[in-house]
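for the writeup, i need someone to sanity check this before i put it in the appendix. the sequnce is what the collaborator sent (i think, or maybe the updated version? ugh). structure was predicted straight from it, no edits. if anything looks off just tell me and ill rerun, i have time this weekend
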Amino acid sequence: MNNTISRIALACAVLAAGVASGRAEPQTQDLKLWYDKPAGQWVEALPVGNGRLGAMVFGGVDQERLQLNEGTLWAGGPYDPSSPEALKALPEARRLIFEGKYGEAHGLIGGKMMAHPLQQMPYEPVGDLKLTFPRNGDVAEYRRELDLDAAIARVTYTVGGVRFVREVFSSPVDQVIVVHLAADKPGQLNFTAAMATPQKATVEAQSPDTLVMGGVNAEAKGIPGALKFQACVRVLTQGGRTTVGKDNVSVSGADSATLLIAAATSYKNYKDVSGDPEALTQAYLAKAVRKPFDTLRRDHIAEHQRLFRRVSLDLSVTEQAKLPTDQRIARFADGNDPQLAALYFQFGRYLLLSCSRAGGQPATLQGLWNESMTPPWDSKYTININTEMNYWPAEPANLGECTAPLIQMVTELVEPGGRTARVNWGAGGWVCHHNTDLWRATAPIDGPTWGFWPTGGAWLCKNLWDRYDFGGDKQYLAKVYPVMKGAAQFFLDTLVEEPKHKWLVTCPSLSPENTHPGGVSVCAGPTMDSQIIRDLFSNCIHASEILGVDADLRAKLVATRARLAPNQIGKAGQLQEWLEDWDMQAPEIQHRHVSHLYGLYPSAQITPRGTPELAAAVRKSLQMRGDDATGWGVGWRINLWARLLDGDHAYKLLAMLMTPPRTLPNMFDSCPPFQIDGNFGGCSGIAEMLMQSHASEIELLPALPKAWPSGSVKGLRARGGFEVDIAWQDGKVTSYRIASADRRKVTIRLSGETKVIKSERL
């Protein structure tokens, strides 16, 4: 820390005029979660992942458990849940809603317009690798840690005068999980490796050094299992002897051992399950086995650090940092531990890198990690907030490549979403409601209270646009523009005129997942829908201008956008959640969702300087809603308060998020139970407190809390393709650096004033 402070002081002395030259070294020395005992339960274990293959590492002495996941192992198989009855019921549902007969509309929608089956498929675990160790003495000097900078879970301890070291990582280079076991004295390593699974599968030792587990996925909701899967463990030793049982491999008297874990399914895409998991696992193992452990480790670290080290954050270190991480989490709200906030931010970046990489699936409700055949909410893609939130930090935290699986999924939703648009709505384009799964189901699920929300696909298009907005890649924009255009076409075909003001609105819809005074959720034109559609139309208009296409469509989008229901301020001074001023009469005034505040964040339709009256109404809505919410609900509120430029309130919420029960001992977010979106919401919230770029300018320290009087951040990403470094002392910016590939000019806001500067070269 002292060296860092010295570097900052030197930069301040040399660059008192403003822009910092040069790049600080990445902060890596404090980026470890560590514990003085093994994990007693899953929410204490430590996650590793390569975007496709993940493990939860427990760190036991007598028995190590690695709980395994593969991103395409879900229940069921390809299916079409669209309801042919829905279209016939649509006019009547609209009539009932516009007549205020919401209960009748709810009943009709629930009976005629929902998906078949009513629920989607769950994400499932592969199973466990269990390593059993004989013990010859008491355990001393135990330490379990997750090194974020190296992406390695590590366990060290001493038994009988022998020091044992265990390292686990999931290699994005070699597509295997690597477990390395070593002792500081020769011939002291003894263990038995076995596998177990809740799936329909068998486990057998196929050779003296190989365990194979193979089977089929589960049926769910009446959809038969269609996937084959296989997981293999190859045991490689230095010294000692290997013996094989029926379903296990034992090692005795070895100096060290390396276990390579490969897993795959027959999934090729959401329509094709004809893959060969055995061929895939064998290919992964054949490649990995040719590399010695040191090379596997080196290649893994290099690829991880290529992305992870783009951003460093120093908020200073206090005595609290000497404590185990679970103790620091328990004390955070009442202590002085700014480095834990920096660690939380970097943990969010680590999780995104670990669970979302090109070629894999997007992060689910639990990211890549799930131990249950029936996980909470099926661990699906809930797209009325949670999936989008998973990717909020991707661009500002300089991990834009991690959005590739999400972009691929949204692209794949076009075909099934087009079918749902035709069958359920009689419309062109495509639609996805409040959930999807591995099989890209798009129809409304779960019941009208939650599922009949047609704007999920449109919100996902905001994530697609953000990728362009931060990077400016026209080739990418040309690829995703048809997806965005299709989403817009659906609303051009389905928006209807509401009777009171003649505004164009969605109907039927709802404000996720809130009930209005009519006693149900279904309604016409909730505020969030108009905000999302306004963004969608605006982004399509802008994209068509950039690409020089679709002038006629652009004109139609401009005209339709002008007729969308506006944001309205209610009698309590709040931003209305619905067309009607129902907020104060709603059954849950302090509901966990703050859907109608989308316009402030993640959108920028509302800003404190650009639309001060609406921003004040958002503030009132937040005050009415209250601070207390689920983990992800608090995460969203952090970003909202940061956008309102209230850093101390944002920090108050961050402290709520980072302490039990919302943060678990392994730093996972708890909804409760575990949901990874809160981690990502907290991560993006910290970025928003330090830098914002949504208002055609880059604002430095827009919502810096008093709790972080001094610090530095390097490598944040701003819209327009800029990278931003900032150092500050006593709450004031002391140096900064703005860089871009082409050294473009940019407007920055600093201490309430704006100026135009020429950026440095990246």
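The two ends are 26 Å apart (CA to CA). The CA atoms of residues 627 and 704 lie 19 Å apart.
thx in advance!!
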